[in-house]
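Milestone M4 deliverable, item 7.
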Amino acid sequence: SAAARWHYGRTQRQRFYTTGVMGRALAGLIPAQHSFTDNLQDMVDLAYSDRASEPLPAMRAARKLRQALPVSLTGKIAVFYADGNDFNDIRDALGGTPDARKTFSDGVRPVMEDAIAGLLGAVAAGAKAAKGTAAQAASVYHDADERTNETDVEKDQLRFETLLYGGDEICFVAPAWFGLQMADAFFAAVKGKQLDGHALTFKAGLVLAPVKMPIAASRNLAKALAESMKRGNSNRLGIQAFESVEPPANGLSDLREQLFGKMTGPVSPFIALDGDRFGATLAEIRALSGTGEGAIPRSQLFKALRQGQWQGDDSKQLLKARPLGDAECGAKVAKVLDDYCAAAGFGKTSSGYVGALRAPGTAALAAWLLTHVWDYVDPVERTGTVADTGAA
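Output delivered:
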């Protein structure tokens, strides 16, 4: 019957995370009495608008978190897609026989288990925090109406979804506020992995999109972004945030060509990020976008980008923006940011991310990336403590 199929599907979907490869990867990460959200809308729901009078502290904390998060994150998901580089060639190099393929499969499996554990670990960590805290509200959706005795689905549900697990090809979804953490955890897990002398590397795409964008479209965008990141046998990541529920009319490549221009020669490391040092890049971005010493105001970055893209030689505004990869755009952005850094006490720093912001060849793209991911860097932690410890 339809009811039996519904019950079976709901039960097996949850058991997918506790058995087989996923079960081994996630052992110990999923807290007791937790399952996974049933749909993407629940995944990003912090308002609980249909339960305005619900007294649970977890729900009140979620509403407070929603008010504290940047507006750009509201109702957004992170779609993370990754695929192995030339894994078919590695299989062939190992001999291409059934035994060789088994050797390859057995060697890749623990790498993927570690990567999956890292991805979900970024989401699940907050589930172990006390109820009524920002960390717990960010990680867990509380479905007060769930009937656990009928479906084996718990009321407390981790905000995570699997779209694809196909060996070395994966696609997972979580709230946008976990996007950068997921990417960081994935590349930390696969860094330096080898099999019989063959490097196991990945190209990946992280799309940050409104939950109302058709999921097939956001998944396809993440896949297209990942495929455009391939740079030899190296770990690479592309990041693209979208504000509209409509995917780009002429595809991702056309959108990025309009934004960056036709890139010749090696692609900028601020477009195809080095996965092996993504954690270090994220740390630099975290410092520059923070509030402590060494931070750069976002207003200065926007000012520099406006001048680089729109200001003509006669100081009049151009009718069409220069692409970020344009040499003149880079020179103008670098001039604004170099002047700011000199006045703000950065001295003659010419290395690291600050150095990239001051160099004409990298300034525009470095400034773009910094402003592009600004709101997605540790957004939950930056709200401060949001707690509600009142009685349920």
